[in-house]
Design a protein that fits this description.
Blueprint: H1 20-24, H2 30-33, E1 40-50, E2 56-69, E3 75-81, E4 88-95, E5 101-108, E6 111-121, E7 124-131, E8 137-146, E9 152-158, E10 164-173, E11 176-184, E12 189-197, E13 203-211, E14 216-228, E15 234-240, E16 246-256
Antiparallel strand pairs: 1-2, 1-16, 2-3, 3-4, 4-5, 5-6, 6-7, 7-8, 8-9, 9-10, 10-11, 11-12, 12-13, 13-14, 14-15, 15-16
Length: 259
């Protein structure tokens, strides 16, 4: 199932050459961060299997993901369900009147699995507190820094006993996510992720590295964009392995607010 988090983000980023709506949106809006052109109300991504030639197969058993945006372009929530619609995860996101993120709540099949509350001071997040399914605090976050577009640049994650668990540093080009590095409590890198963008700022390659005590795993994924709508937003994307072999196709349906 798709995981969306204010503090831990690995996103697939696309961009449109249509700039008219981008100029009207607040600079910290999620339309810009998600590189959507036009007044997008919802996107729905459906993942399909594919053969070696890239021929479209059946709907994957994993998930169909819908992401919702309010009329200012801020992400208000998502739903993710498996093929049989027997496992459904939902998330809701809240913002203040300036668009600053204030919290999130995740549920699975109607039951809470986690939540997060963010305190903002002087237009910036100062501390965030994470809660488990029983509303018991399991982590808190400090040393949160952001760029001029309210994108998280770094934070430290602590256990309830104030023991440092990890730290994360993100890289952005204005609103565009470019990657991140996670380190454990002693400063050892445990995870990294980076993306390469084309001239439309679509992700054309992602590189992921996971480091454990016993091994290091590297994964490269390549992306090809097969179709776009009249706003310039992609509507079909093929994902490939490092050798260019198709592994899945994502079809995206986009709903727009009436202008």
């Amino acid at each position: 199932m798709k995981k969306i988090s204010f503090l831990l983000m690995v996103t697939a980023i696309t961009f449109s050459c249509n700039n008219s709506k981008k100029q009207e949106a607040p600079k910290n809006s999620d339309w810009l961060a998600d590189n959507l052109s036009g007044n997008v109300q919802q996107t729905t991504d459906s993942t399909f299997k594919t053969d070696n030639t890239g021929k479209l197969g059946e709907l994957d058993s994993c998930c169909v993901v819908s992401t919702k945006y309010d009329e200012q372009g801020y992400n208000s929530g998502f739903t993710s369900s498996d093929k049989a619609s027997t496992d459904k995860e939902e998330g809701t996101f809240t913002h203040d009147d300036k668009g600053l993120f204030t919290g999130q709540k995740f549920t699975r099949n109607g039951k809470q699995i986690s939540s997060l509350a963010v305190q903002n001071e002087n237009g910036k997040p100062s501390v965030a507190t994470s809660f488990d399914s029983t509303n018991k605090m399991n982590f808190y976050y400090t040393d949160i820094t952001t760029n001029d577009y309210d994108r998280i640049l770094s934070f430290k994650q602590y256990k309830p006993d104030s023991t440092l668990k990890m730290s994360t540093a993100f890289t952005y080009d204005k609103q565009l996510y470019k990657g991140q590095v996670n380190k454990d409590s002693v400063g050892k890198e445990t995870y990294s992720y980076s993306v390469k963008l084309d001239d439309k700022n679509n992700v054309i390659e992602s590189n992921e590295k996971t480091v454990t005590k016993d091994s290091t795993t590297n994964k490269t994924t390549k992306y090809r964009y097969d179709s776009y709508d009249d706003k310039g937003n992609w509507t079909q994307r093929t994902e490939m392995d490092e050798n260019g072999k198709p592994v899945k196709i994502v079809k995206r349906t986009i709903t727009y607010y009436k202008e």
